[in-house]
Amino acid sequence: MGDDDRPNAAYVERSTTDTVLERAARSVLPALAADIENEPVSLILTDSNGIVLSRTAGDSTLLTALDRVDLAPGFRYAETQVGTNGIGTALEVGRPLLVDGDQHFSGPLRSFSCAGAPVTHPITGAILGVVDLTTAAQNSNTLLLSFATLAAARLRERMLDDATEPDRAIFSAYRSACRRSSRPVVAVGDEVVMMNSLTRQQFDSPDQMAILERTRDIGGETKPITILTDLPSGTVVRLSYEPTFTGGRLAGGIVRITKQVASPSFSIPKVSASTPPSIAGTSPLWRHTVHSVVEACRRQDWLVVDGEPGVGKTALIRAAHQLVPNRRLAVLDAGELGGDDLLTQASVELGSGSDLAILHAHAMSEAHLAALADLLQGPHAQEPPLRPWVALTWYPQDSTDTSSLLRMFPKSVTVPPLRHHLDDIPDLVRSLLDTLGATGLTLAPAASNQLARLAWRGNVTQLKKVLEDTYRRQRSGIVELDTLPPACRSTTRRTLTRMQALERDAIVDALALHAGDKTAAATAIGMSRATIYRKIREFGIVP
């Protein structure tokens, strides 16, 4: 867009006009507009995409001038389309700002001055839109920004008044906890999750994600509870949860976070010589997990290894057993073998003196689990070194099962999901590529960093599939960001439908084909520029 080009604001049809922001605006903005109706200024409200929702002004000449640059209801004034402006730039930087005349990117907008203030949800903190005051450049003054900021505050106050009683109760408890505590604080409700600045300052993104997951786990409790949890960084924290009620109903709860001082019972052991060479990863949380499995195997302590699918439970058991000399490990998969066949083979292997790993033991029927417990009674009664080592993999992670089988296993080790030890991705990538035979393939820093931003719901198994796909695309050399599969170019952490995944992949491929040119990519796939910009943001696509 050149200096003298008309702003390229796209018109967008909207399907709803009953958002929480618009409901608040219907109560707040008329009075504010009346305060400035005799001034040569326009009061504008947009949504979070920069689409103008409403526009009022007492000056007809100003309204005509705004129409000429499409600063009117239905048009989108995002920075990606219009360049620097009071609406789109306020959305980008997330704070109030004044854009005077020549500071605008588009030539025709330089005759205006615009003050934009983001409107945030009073409970979630999400940016819902922008209040903008626009006037002719020669009328600019700092009062524009003050008025826009005041209008945004009034809208927040109204939204808080309109919030549900449970939301207000959580917000009130959260504010009280933040004022009275010098510790990190997290609030959780049915639809609300908040964390204070101390939480963001003291914990990096993987640790924050782990804290939120554990907070959600205890969020439905009706009594105070305190738990200890290991974070991906290796830090151990105490989460102190207090429920919040309103009208006798549980609204959610407040969690105060305290870092634990290292002690013998919670210190992360250093694993050096006892670390299996075939297991990649050096993060403290991963080393702690590896050490626990290796020690159980060395001591011949029967072990339940649980965790999400694809985290590497089987690989960890095999690798730990490789450190035990002169012993054979038989691996039987309950997900593939029938119960009767598994019991028969297990009996044979135990009779031959083998150690035993039973995968997906949770897939067995209650009758077969009871029969397996009976089969293991004899070996269980033996003392090391005569007793064989037996390990089970189990999912979901449920230690409350009181079956006779699980009572024979004194300890469980939970293998963390990949999203909890993202620092290990470079080591995992190198190990998996070598396993695939791709010894001449290396990931560029940008590609490696992108992998560390993803959610990895399929854990290491998903990472392996990504690298297999990458290896099919490129056999050697340095893998750049645009060589990664389309799914890896999007950082959205929500689950996409099949159609959404296809749409995301089409956009990624088009951007790669046209060297990141969004306009050319949109044209190639029959999509408007406004839509492709929205989809890029929605899917978290890295151009």
UniProtKB/TrEMBL annotation:
Coiled coil: none annotated. The keyword Transcription regulation applies. Residues 405-472 form the Sigma-54 factor interaction domain. One of its GO terms (molecular function) is ATP binding. PANTHER family: SIGMA FACTOR (PTHR32071:SF122), TRANSCRIPTIONAL REGULATORY PROTEIN (PTHR32071). Keywords: ATP-binding, Nucleotide-binding, Transcription, Transcription regulation. This is Fis family transcriptional regulator. Gene3D superfamilies: 1.10.8.60, 3.30.450.40, Homeodomain-like (1.10.10.60), P-loop containing nucleotide triphosphate hydrolases (3.40.50.300). PROSITE patterns: SIGMA54_INTERACT_4 (PS50045). Pfam families: AAA_lid_14 (PF25601), HTH_8 (PF02954). It comes from Rhodococcus opacus.
